[in-house]
Amino acid sequence: MSNERPTAEELRQGLTVEIIQGDQDVESEDQEPIIGEVGTVYEDDPAGPTVELKSGVVGHVQSIVHDR
């Protein structure tokens, strides 16, 4: 399993992803990723593709959450 972030092209509306909000400290040990369904995909970014979740939260995708 790779730790590479997905690209914007790989993301689709309705996918469940794990995001980090842009104003969170990416280096922080206690950051909590947000998990939700993709509503809108914006663009690729060095921090990960920017998306808006259906909940309205905007952030950078760290990974796609697969069924557990």
Helix-strand blueprint:
Blueprint: E1 16-20, E2 34-41, E3 50-53, E4 58-64
Antiparallel strand pairs: 1-2, 1-4, 2-3, 3-4
Organism: Natrialba asiatica (strain ATCC 700177 / DSM 12278 / JCM 9576 / FERM P-10747 / NBRC 102637 / 172P1)
Protein name: DUF2196 domain-containing protein
InterPro entries: DUF2196 (IPR019240)
Q: How would you describe the shape?
A: globular
Radius of gyration: 11 Å
Give the overall average pLDDT.
86
Number of strands: 4
How much helix, percentage-wise, in residues?
A: under 10%
- The largest beta-sheet arranges its strands as 1-2-3-4
Protein name: DUF2196 domain-containing protein
InterPro entries: DUF2196 (IPR019240)
Organism: Natrialba asiatica (strain ATCC 700177 / DSM 12278 / JCM 9576 / FERM P-10747 / NBRC 102637 / 172P1)
Pfam families: DUF2196
Features:
68 residues, four-stranded antiparallel beta barrel, 4 strands
Walk me through the structure.
The protein contains no helices and 4 strands. Helix content is 0%, strand content 35%. The relative contact order is 0.34. The protein is globular. The chain starts with 15 loop residues before the first strand and ends with a strand.
